[in-house]
Design goal:
Layout: H1 12-42, E1 46-48, H2 64-69, E2 76-80, E3 86-90, E4 106-114, E5 139-148, E6 153-157, E7 163-165, E8 172-174, H3 185-200, E9 206-211, H4 212-221, E10 225-229, E11 233-235, H5 238-241, E12 252-253, E13 256-260, H6 262-270, E14 274-277, E15 283-285, H7 290-315, H8 317-330, E16 331-334, H9 341-351, E17 359-362, E18 366-371, E19 374-379, H10 383-391, E20 406-410, H11 414-423, E21 427-431, E22 440-445, H12 448-456, E23 463-471, E24 474-478, E25 490-491
Parallel strand pairs: 1-16, 4-9, 6-17, 20-21, 20-24, 22-23
Antiparallel strand pairs: 2-3, 3-25, 4-5, 5-6, 7-8, 9-16, 10-13, 11-12, 11-14, 14-15, 18-19, 22-24
Length: about 525
């Protein structure tokens, strides 16, 4: 008579191992599927052949901090100074050769939101205030985004009403019209790229465009975007304007946090006449300039939405799938971007980007003008605007370069030396006086780096002396009986002691546009 042998129960460790193998297999299968799906969808993104109008990153000018802190590359010669010390000379580069042989600090992206309504139904919310018979391809939103190697970023909006010379034409018009002159999407992109590069004298390395419907679908795909409003806010209505043709987008929000879906978000960023309710109940227009306030609002919303979208996509495969589908059908990029490899890298970088501390948001100072009977905006010739544009040439707001140093040359032969300093890009003025006891550079509070940069361009050693009457990047060059000479290269300089280091005046922080929450 046989007896059934008792089954050996699996040990707990075996069960855990089998469970772990099963989970790992499932994760591996899911990851493989997601990766394959991403490759397939991103391969369908339309890419424009516009590499011929995009520019390679250019080396930025030498800065005083680099001169002091970086190990400069290039040909170096040891020279004997008049005091018997050895000084290191950084010889100038050959034509088109950068002085410092380093990787570019970052790259510029031209981001465009097109107001194309192709395929949009006449009763769609996007068509509010628009005619279905007008097939415009105007650039409703234009931004230049700089992504730096250190993980920070900067963005500036280009107002669509900015009057510029449209590339490859004899026409002066609003910059958004550069996207409406050609029937081919690729040609439209190329003309806008060339127009922006020429007008701002900056290089663009990549181009990304999304239309209104794509923007709306992205917001819906991530489940909406939360925004905070300090006061009740709404767009202007027909009742406000008293004109049946001058309504608004229909946007309205109460005070506090509001969750915006795709239609509401689109109405919010498209509004050009946003009103806020004051404590006395009156509704007042938000912002002095329609385009400037709207640009600030668009920057705030887009990067808040991006921050929230990436977080949800990482944790929800279904959300990721929806986003990939939208990117595949509603995004267009330059052929300088590998949509998959660069797309993953961009997603990784934005995922780690703190939009409050790592993203600098800039605004240009503009005035109303009329050129050839065309009303629009013009960029003010100001130090603020020059520094904003310099950000997208690779400089930082407080970098000290020759163009930012004001040198008052005093002494015999002041005119000649000031002229040579201007040739070296310094802002130099002159005053002919009697000879000083010796050549000296006077600098004030916050001016030690300006003094270093000037001394580095003078072949002879010049003493640097603190002078409390000066401040910032204003320095004085006093000339003795044997004035120094200006050389093309730089020599290494020992930095002077900053004047009143404990009370050194700091430059104001980079101006950032404020979102609705302030």
């Amino acid at each position: 008579m046989s007896r059934d042998r008792p089954r050996r129960s699996r040990r707990l460790s075996e069960k855990l191992l089998l469970t772990a193998i099963g989970i790992a297999t499932g994760i591996g299968f899911t990851a493989t599927f997601v990766l394959g799906y991403a490759v397939w969808r991103l391969d369908q993104v339309e890419r424009f052949e516009v590499h011929d109008v995009l520019s390679a990153p250019k080396p930025k000018p030498m800065t005083a901090s680099e001169l002091l802190n970086l190990n400069l590359a290039g040909t170096k010669n040891d020279k004997q100074s008049t005091s018997g010390e050895r000084v290191e000379i950084i010889l100038p580069p050959t034509i088109d050769e950068p002085l410092v042989d380093t990787e570019p600090d970052g790259e510029n992206y031209l981001l465009v939101g097109s107001d194309s309504v192709e395929g949009i139904a006449a009763d769609d919310a996007i068509m509010s205030g628009r005619s279905a018979s007008i097939a415009n391809h105007l650039a409703d939103t234009i931004m230049v985004l700089r992504l730096r190697q250190d993980g920070t970023a900067a963005v500036v909006s280009v107002p669509r009403d900015l009057l510029v010379s449209i590339a490859s034409t004899d026409t002066t018009a609003k910059i958004n019209s550069a996207y409406n002159l050609d029937s081919s999407p690729q040609t439209r992109a190329a003309r806008l790229i060339e127009t922006v590069e020429t007008h701002f004298d900056i290089g663009l390395q990549h181009f990304v465009e999304v239309d209104l419907d794509g923007f709306r679908r992205i917001v819906d795909a991530v489940g909406g975007v939360s925004m905070c409003f300090n006061r009740p806010t709404r767009d202007r209505t027909i009742q406000d304007s008293g004109d049946p043709t001058q309504g608004g987008t229909g946007f309205t929000a109460d005070k506090g946090w509001t969750h915006l879906d795709g239609d509401t978000a689109l109405a919010f960023v498209r509004s050009r006449r946003l009103l806020t309710q004051q404590p006395d109940g009156q509704w007042e227009r938000l912002g002095v300039w329609n385009d400037l306030e709207r640009n600030s609002r668009q920057q705030k919303f887009i990067f808040e939405a991006l921050d929230q979208a990436l977080g949800r996509a990482v944790s929800n495969p279904r959300t990721l799938q929806r986003l990939l589908d939208i990117v595949a059908t509603d995004f267009r990029t330059s052929n300088t971007l590998s949509v998959f490899d660069d797309g993953l890298e961009l997603a990784r970088r934005f995922r780690g980007l703190n939009v409050d501390s790592d993203l600098e948001r800039y605004a240009l100072q503009l005035i109303d003008v009329s050129i050839d009977d065309k009303a629009g905006l013009e960029i003010v010739d100001s130090e603020h605007n020059k520094r904003v544009v310099d950000i997208f040439r690779g400089l930082r707001w407080d970098d000290v370069t020759e163009e930012r140093v004001q040198v008052a040359v005093q002494g015999p032969a002041a005119l000649s030396l000031a002229s040579r300093l201007r040739g070296a890009r310094f802002k130099a003025t002159h005053q002919e006086t009697d000879a000083y006891p010796e050549n000296r550079i006077r600098y004030g509070i916050g001016g030690d780096q300006a003094a270093v940069l000037l001394a580095a361009r003078l072949r002879e050693n010049v003493e640097m002396v603190a002078d409390p009457s000066l401040s910032g990047s204003r320095v004085t060059l006093e000339l003795g009986s044997q004035p120094p000479s200006v050389m093309r290269g730089y020599k290494t300089i020992e930095p002077p002691t900053p004047l009143a280091a404990n009370t050194t005046q700091k430059s104001p922080p980079p101006p950032r546009t404020l979102g609705v929450c302030g």
